Amino acid sequence: MSAKPIAKSSRRSVVPSQGRAKLAKLRRLTDAEIARSSPEELRDLPKDFWDDAVPVLPAAKVPISLRVDADVLEFFRETGPRYQSRMNAVLRSYMERTGISAPKRSKKRGIA
């Protein structure tokens, strides 16, 4: 049995289904339209709610190769998109609960 060659697709032809804001459309929305589309829990925030907000940039991730049991990987993959972020959260939770301080991160490439 011979394997069929897999066609390579151009990166330009792949359009993400999420994550791309339609900025022109958003700029045309009125405040009332935005308020109607917001989740219920965000509709009655006080006017000064964001006054003291401080942007927090996410920490840079370091790509690694990690060997895990097949059933562990399958478990996380079945939880849906961003399963690697959930795996990271589980590892972070373990790290924080052990009480052992993590080594200082190197500013050079994000590794200790």
Please give a structural write-up.
With 112 residues, this protein is mainly alpha-helical. It is built from four helices and no strands. It has helices at residues 23-28, 31-37, 70-78, 83-98. The protein starts with 22 loop residues before the first helix and ends in a 14-residue tail after the last helix.
Distance between the termini: 48 Å
Q: Percent of residues in helical segments?
A: 25-40%
The sequence of SSEs as H and E is HHHH
Mean of residue pLDDT?
80
Overview features:
single chain; 112 residues; mainly alpha; extended
Short description:
With 112 residues, the chain is mainly alpha-helical. It contains four helices and no strands.
Topology:
Layout (H helix, E strand, L loop, with lengths): L22 H6 L2 H7 L32 H9 L4 H16 L14
